[in-house]
Write a structure and sequence with these properties.
135 residues; 9 strands; three-stranded antiparallel β-sheet; 32% helix; single chain; globular; alpha+beta
Length: 135
Amino acid sequence: MYYIRRSQKGLYVVKEYQEDYVNMGLKKYLNELMLKSHVTLNGRLDALKKRYKLTQNIPIYINESICFYTTKPLREYETICINFCNVLSLRERDDTNSEIIFKNLKILKVNIPYSLLIKKHAQTARILDQINKTI
């Protein structure tokens, strides 16, 4: 999975070889993904907050191949969940916009400053590194 974006039709879910619309809310969709691992979204977020002393920009760890960070707070309509594990690189477009280049070389333009995107990406990398050390 590469990213999830809200749209008027529901959620736009982009995977390696397919793009789908899912008629479901973002939190419910993320919760459904996590229930496959016998955890809930709120439980996982609370655990990450406590374990790593985070207050904001908490990565959404699903499994070893899916770990999202969001471009905006999770409740905002324009938020996009980016799967850290499939990001090849990040690129600055201008002061308020950036580009995310995925491993399949597709480019996603996001309305977020490059410095903030780098910060979210780096924090997710640190948390994933710590999670992988404890597994």
